[in-house]
Amino acid sequence: MGGAPLAWLSSSWTQLHLSLALPQLVCLPLYLSIPESPRWLLLRRRTDVLERYRSNSPADKQCLDLLLETALKEPAPPAGHAPSDIIHLRHPTVLLRLFIMSYLSAASALTYFGICMNIGSFGVGVYAAQFFSGLSEAPCLLVPLVRLGRRPISMLALFLSGAACFLSLLLSRYYGEPVLVMSLALLGKLCILTATFISVLYSIELFPTVVRQRCVSLVNLCYRLGCLANSLVPSNPNGAISLAAMVVYSSGPIVGCGLCLLLPETSGVPLPDSAEDCDRQPRPRLPSISALCRKRKPVCSVTRGPEPPPAEKDETLTGLFEL
Question: Whose CA is closest to 142, among 184, 187, 190?
Fold first, then answer.
């Protein structure tokens, strides 16, 4: 929201660039107050820093004692050979999660910055459109208050973003009302930004500690590549959004919504420290038709048969009623 009046007051792009960069430079020293991951410090044998963390609070001391106790039970690596993090990156579960989160990041960046770069193509003034574009992102501050899991809210946000972008771009192509077109576009921008916020936390909880930094870096790299890919989307000579852009901006989030079905729910689950911990996380299971038929078969046999069921079916019914 502040970028619109800054752009209106700035006489050149250099002044606007400096005014936007100053807050980032002021906040840069705050990174010095962020603590390191205890698991990472343990892998690097930084025991002096761990001892300093233990004196912070009783809760930190209890957590670090539990971490040290778990580390002592693990087998030590052979002498002279340090375990390579690349081995964990080759794990099928880690590779699947890395592919899905990389795609979600690239698709989110492509849709988000595609709307931002074409905000002047909706028939509204560029400064007013930029102001309301920033205003539409304000509800994202309420995302931490939503008591849903990571996967449901990601799927909902991605689906709504793709649907809203498709409707807005379709109306803009067929000369719809500019206010309605921009409202739908900003709704899609809000939803894709919500999915981006959740994916940042989702990526941290999906990847194990030993390769979390590398995996998150690769996901962020795909996000930047999605930003650069906006320049490759062809545009119409009249300034309107092309049909190719309509397909890309709307289909990317919807495909990502389907890929989220392959990810586990990480809300309330401890962070994985290794690839084996990722395999122990609960996996999503879709009910099959054959399983439903097997469950209903004993009930049908009891209701239709005039004679009392044998002892084996009694046990089946007892277990069914208990479930």
Answer: 190
Segment 210-246, tens digit of pLDDT? 888 889 999 999 999 988 888 777 666 665 666 777 7
Report if pTM > 0.90. no
d(CA 177, CA 115): 17
Specify the length of the chain in residues. Answer: 323
CA atoms within 13 A on the CB side of 283: 11
Chain segment 75-121, per-residue pLDDT in tens: 555 544 445 566 777 788 888 999 999 999 999 988 888 877 776 66
Closest CA relative to residue 190, chosen from 123, 113, 133, 254: 133
d(CA 245, CA 252): 11
**DSSP-assigned letters across all residues of 198-238:** HHHHHHHHHS-GGGHHHHHHHHHHHHHHHHHGGGGS---TT
Cβ density class 204-242: b for 16+ within 10 Å, e for less:
bbbbbbbbbeebbebbeebbeebbebbeebeeeeeebbb
